[in-house]
Specification:
The structure is a homodimer. By secondary structure, chain A is α+β, with helices and mostly antiparallel strands. The first copy, chain A, is built from seven helices and four strands. In chain A, about 50% of the residues lie in helices and about 5% in strands. The interface between A and B is large, with 36 and 36 residues.
Chain lengths: ~200, ~200
């Protein structure tokens, strides 16, 4: 397998961390130069028509885009250690939290970054006022995450899961919009320290 | 089980269609008045802190929010008919297409609607210029979907899946922003006619 990745971007990091947590090695890493627009070229669009990283390319040439789909594939080919829940309810709640963080934290952080900085203005139309709003939306999710982590050791409950990976990569990417895990969020701080201690942290 | 739903909204419809495709009956439907802000009240926020529909409430009181998580729960409790793929690759590609449609079609349609009309301006800050951009992003996804449906009978490949449900609910919701399946998209038109013929269409 090959993983088309990019060093600073949060979604490729989610995939690399999932590989590390699963203990899957031997995946060839191919770094895509997003700032230079390598992902916009026809060769890359053949792998993902939406021109985004990560993409997991299987040995038969099948290309799997979207981090959630890569999570799913890895969970299927190597069920242990389990990262997506063990029974119907646990699976659903893991999916719920992973999706919540993706939609209500990571996506607004990305929009805030792109729309306020104009980082990708060669390929999109930044709307600064929307970027500002998106930043507020991301910040508004922190109290919800804090409440969850006050009740549970991990994001989706009492087991480590892909939702922890997504939350970690989202929150650390949040630095680009000055989103900080302040002392107002002691449970997130406690959880963050636990995440940093995992070997997958540097993946 | 109970489903907290809303008649005109696309995500509750996705859940109702999945229930219908699975042949799961006896779920109590509770209509939430989104325009009137019933979803913003404390009673509802106890079920979903993000104040969104749909929510599937299990008999033990567990509340599952996020349509993708409801899909997952239904697939787990009633695997047939299969809606999310049969092997690792099929499951991953189904997830990929479902997620693509959610992020690159349904979400921009929703943003365009909310930001250009100000429909929810009592609870958010509409940014009209972003709404316009989001509308363009949604329209830009149609050629990608057309290309996929020229090669495959269904959205995720050769099997009906949740990705078809998500695509149908997204495209039909697109009417609110004047997104039309014109003759430029014959494969989408062919597929749309097939979807309308399924009993789940009116769920």
């Amino acid at each position: 397998m090959k993983l088309y990745s990019a060093n600073m971007a949060p979604n490729p990091r989610r995939s690399r961390m999932a590989l590390a947590e699963k203990g899957i090695s031997g995946v060839e890493m191919i770094d895509i130069d997003l700032a230079g627009g390598e992902n916009l070229k026809p060769e890359f669009r053949e792998r993902n028509s939406l021109a985004k990283v990560p993409v997991l390319e299987l040995d038969d040439g099948t290309c799997i885009a979207e981090t959630a789909a890569i999570y799913r594939y890895l969970e299927e080919i190597q069920p242990e250690p389990n990262l997506m829940g063990r029974d119907a309810k646990e699976k659903a709640l893991t999916e719920m939290w992973d999706r919540r963080i993706d939609n209500a934290l990571l996506m607004p952080i990305g929009h805030c970054f792109q729309h306020t900085t104009g980082f990708f203005k060669d390929r999109m139309t930044p709307v600064a006022a929307w970027g500002e709003e998106a930043g507020k939306l991301a910040a508004a999710f922190l109290p919800i995450l804090e409440q969850q982590l006050q009740k549970h050791e991990f994001v989706a409950g009492d087991h480590f899961s892909v939702a922890d990976i997504t939350a970690l990569c989202s929150l650390e990417f949040g630095k680009v919009i000055q989103l900080r895990i302040t002392e107002d969020f002691p449970a997130i701080q406690r959880w963050h320290a636990q995440m940093k201690a995992r070997p997958s942290y540097t993946a």
